[in-house]
Structure formats: structure tokens, C-alpha cells
Amino acid sequence: MEKTALIIGVTGQDGAYLSELLLAKGYMVHGLKRRSSSFNTGRVDHLYQDPLADDVRFRLHFGDLTDATNLCRVIQEVQPDEIYNLGAQSHVQVSFETPEYTANSDALGTLRLLEALRILKLGDRCRFYQASTSELFGGMGAVAQHEGTPFYPRSPYAAAKLYAYWMTVNYREAYGFHASNGILFNHESPLRGETFVTRKITRGVAAIERGLMRKLHLGNLDARRDWGHARDYVDGMWRILQQDMPDDYVLATGEAHSVREFVELAFCVVGRTIEWDGRDADEIGFDARTGDPIIAIDPRYFRPTEVNFLLGDPAKARRKLNWRHSTPFKDLVTEMVESDLRVVMREEGRNDLAG
Ligand code: NDP
Ligand code: GDR
Questions:
Q1: CATH fourth-level superfamily of 197-224+258-306+328-354
Q2: Is-contact 126 176, C-beta < 8 A?
């Protein structure tokens, strides 16, 4: 029988990949989008269907995680079999500037969804996925993190997600909800938001290569992350909700790389080698061939409390979900740089026409 899914955060990176995956599996997909003064549906525009057409399989609804009545109404209307809560103020550094809003959307927003299911008495038939994060671990030791590793949130974002994690566990235990957490390590793609470090780097490399930018300004180059491809991770989300029993799972590649390595590899894709000079805030990266400075450190991108080391152990997901990531680190970086070269060249074309 056809299943119906509701994706909160459908306009984000993961929302776009998950929509594609569920549509390919024959789902009816509903998504919650925020009202915005500018277009915010670029990642899912290719999936848009005329709501009045016959056999519509993808529909968007206005809504917001900070608005409980709206969430209740949309859920009542849609009667989903599965809810994927991917909605969040998801930028760690921004959460230090907007801690209250981050708590409202990321922590209380999750509670509002769970409560809506309870009020509407849908808890026994609608499965719930919560987008939990490796940020919960805080990266305090240099060992791989798994489902049993103690949490130590190091930002308002991580603290808000910690509340959401435990509320998901609590509704499972208290009311028998099929509610699960995916504790996902960083996952990236050409659709990644431009202010996260990977996309900022690949866009910067493309702009420098096309002569539109001279230097890329970054923060901590020594942070290490376990970076995978978003397409692989949304498949893991779906697998989590297909299990008979709800549970919590780490999804990761099991490999960590530093921001510095990401930068070096991204420039390597366009045939440039970087030579580093100096340390910390004075550090500069030069193009080895031309001698031009192309990387500078800007302390504005340092965080009040940093997460230095994230490396996931996905053994449980491998064993129980038969899930594995399929995109090697090098392929991920290459795909992102090549995609951004195309994006930058398209933008150049538009500017030429306008000029
Ligand atoms: P994005 O930032 O790309 O997308 C977040 C989505 O949430 C967007 O659709 C955004 O809408 C929406 N949103 C933000 N605030 C609200 C709100 N108040 N009400 C309703 N919707 C809101 O994140 P990703 O796709 O990368 O991540 C998806 C989820 O997974 C997030 O919850 C994130 O915290 C979590 N996560 C992500 C990881 C990653 O590496 N990508 C790793 C672990 C967890 P709009 O487009 O209008 O801004
Ligand atoms: P993160 O991702 O904080 O891990 O959260 P981000 O790409 O923002 O930072 C990764 C690491 O890179 C360092 N860094 C910089 N970061 C940004 N954004 N900009 C810079 O210029 C820069 N220079 C160095 C950061 O200090 C950090 O150590 C992401 C989000 O998707 C969360 O929603 C998700 O929960 C986690 O991944 C897992």
C-alpha cells in the first residue's frame, strides 16, 4: 500500500535528497516549508507538481516548528505514516548568536511534533524520525563515537538537539511511539548550505579558479570531521523507520579528516597545491605555483567552544540496517568542487548577459 511521509525541513539539503528517495519508492511526500521573503525552494523546485493536477505525489505546506497549532493542523490533514523531522536552525556557529531561537525550533519544535502526534492519537500508527547529530558527543576524546558514548554538547545547537534526542526516547518509552534517533555525522553534497565549511571551501575554490575571488577566509583548520555524502545518509534515515522496533543509530563513514585536508584536496581537484606558512590566526596558504596567498585565517570563524574531533563508529547500523556509506571522501570533495565550478560559470554567464 502507498505510504505517506511528512518531511519537516523539506527545503534543506537532506529534505531534498530524502524527497527524491521517497518519491522513487512510491511514497506520497508532503513537506513543510517556511514562509520567506525570498524563494527558499530551490533544492526541491524540480520536484514541484501542480497541486491541482491528478495524481500529485509531492505537496508543500506552509509551516514552522515554532508554531504548534500549525504543526497539529498539517499533521491532521496529511495523516502521515512517517514523519522525518529534519527541520532545524542547523548552523552551530549561528546558534551562539541565536541560542533562544535555536532552542525554540530545534528542541521545543521536536516536542511540538511529538505532542501533536499524542494529541491527534497518531502515535501508534505514525513512525517518527528525529535528526539527531554527532554534535551531541562534543568530540572530547580522540576515539570513535558510537550509540553508547556519553554526550557532552558544546553549543546551544547541540544542547537543543540533546533535548530533542531525549524527548524522542521518552515518547518511545512513555507512550510506545515508534520514534527513533539517527545520530548522523557530517554529511555533505553539492546541495550543502554555502556557509558550512565544506561548501564554503568548494565554492571558494571554484571562485578563485575562475578569477572571481582572491582569498578564502576560514577559521579552525585543525578540526576533524567524519564527512559522508548526504545521499547515502537519507537512505539510512529511511532504513531506520522500516525497522519493526524503534531504536537509535549512528550513521558515519568511520573515517575522519581535518578541515585542512579538505582544503588541500579541494584545491588539488583544480590542479593547485597549497603551501602553508605560519600557525593559527596568522596562518596563510599560498598557491605553490604562483605564490599567491589564497587562504587566510579569520578569527571571526573561531567558535566560543569548538568540537575538535568527530569520528563515528557505524557498526550497529551496518549490522542491523545493512546500511553503509558508498561515497569515498575524495569522490565527495571532487563532486562538490566540480558542481561549484558549474555553478560559478552559470553565474558568470548571467552576469555577462546582464552587463
Ligand atoms: P539544512 O540547514 O540544510 O536544512 C534545515 C531545514 O530546516 C531547512 O528546510 C530549513 O528551512 C528548515 N527550518 C529551519 N528552521 C525551521 C523552523 N523554525 N521551522 C521549520 N523548518 C525550519 O540542514 P540539513 O539538511 O543539512 O540537515 C537536516 C537536519 O539534520 C537538521 O535538523 C540538522 O540539524 C541535522 N543534521 C545535519 C547533519 C549534516 O551534516 N547535514 C548532521 C547531523 C544532523 P529554510 O530552507 O527555510 O531555511
Ligand atoms: P559543523 O559544520 O559545525 O560540524 O555542523 P561546519 O561545516 O559549520 O563546521 C565544521 C568545522 O569546520 C570548522 N571551520 C569552519 N566552519 C564554518 N562553518 N566556516 C568556516 O569558515 C570554518 N573554518 C573552520 C568549524 O569550526 C568546525 O570545526 C554540521 C551541521 O550540519 C550541523 O547541523 C550538524 O549537526 C553537524 O554538522 C554534524
A1: UDP-galactose 4-epimerase, domain 1 (3.90.25.10)
A2: no
C-alpha cell belonging to residue 194: 554555502
For residue 124, give every residue at least 6 positions away whose Cβ sits within 8 Å of its Cβ, in sequence order, or none.
176, 177
- State the distance from the centre of ligand 1 to the C-alpha of 68, rounded, in angstroms: 18
* Cell representation of residue 248: 537509535
- Domain limits, the chain: 4-188+227-255, 197-224+258-306+328-354
User: In a 10 Å sphere around its CB, with 0-12 CB exposed, 13-18 middle and 19+ buried, how is residue 221 labelled?
Assistant: buried
Residues 355 and 353: their CA atoms lie apart, in Å, by: 5
Q: Into which CATH architecture does domain 4-188+227-255 fall?
A: 3-Layer(aba) Sandwich (3.40)
Q: How far apart are CA 84 and CA 129, in angstroms?
A: 5
pLDDT in tens, 77-101: 999 999 999 999 999 999 999 999 9
Ligand 2 atom closest to residue 259's alpha carbon, by position in its atom list: 12
Q: Which of 186, 194, 280 to mutate to test the pocket of ligand 2 (most atoms within 8 A of CB)?
A: 186
Burial of 69 (0-12, 13-18, 19+ CB in 10 A): exposed
Distance CA 274, CA 268 (A): 8
The 10s digit of each residue's pLDDT in 296-354 is 999 999 999 999 999 999 999 999 999 999 999 999 999 999 999 999 999 988 777 66
Listed in sequence order, the residues at least 6 apart from 121 whose beta carbon sits closer than 8 Å to its beta carbon are none
